[in-house]
Amino acid sequence: EILPSGEWPENFSMLNFEDLSLHFAPTLFKAEAQPSTLLADVMSGLRFSAAQDDLLEAIEHCFDEVSGVPVLDEERKCIGVVSRKDRDKATNGLKSPVSEVMSSPAITLSADKTVSDAAVIMLKKKIHRIPIVNDSNAVIG
C-alpha cells in the first residue's frame, strides 16, 4: 500500500476533505498566507495589464516578472487573463492579438475573500492566478 508522507492510520476512503487539508496545509500554504488570511493581505498590486486589442509583443516584457497579465476593458474591468502558456499557443506568435489567446471570462475574487477561498476556486477551475477586484469590479491586484 502506497501512502503519502505522514501518518495515515485509516483507509483513504474514510478520509474527507478536511482531513486531507489539515494534513497537507503546512506543505500547501506559506506561513504568511494561511487559509484564513485575507487576499488583501497577501495579494500583489496591479503591476501590468493588457487590452484585448493589444498585440502580444506589447506585453512580452511583462512575462519577465509575472506569469500572467489581466486583460482589462475600457472601464478597467477584468475580461480575461493572458499567461505565458497562452502566449506560447498564439498562431501568429507575438503578432497575435491578446484577444486571440486570453482565457476568458476571467475568474475574479474580492480582496475580502480568504486564501482558502482562492485555493478552492483555483483547484476546482484548474487555474493558476486570480485577479483581485474592488467593489466596482476594477482590478486592484
From TrEMBL:
Alphabetized Gene3D superfamilies for the sequence: CBS-domain
Pfam families xrefs: CBS
CDD domains, per database record: CBS_pair_SF (cd02205)
Keyword RNA-binding: no
Keywords: CBS domain
Annotated ranges, domain CBS: 102-141
Protein name listed in UniProt: CBS domain-containing protein
Source organism (scientific name): Selaginella moellendorffii (Spikemoss)
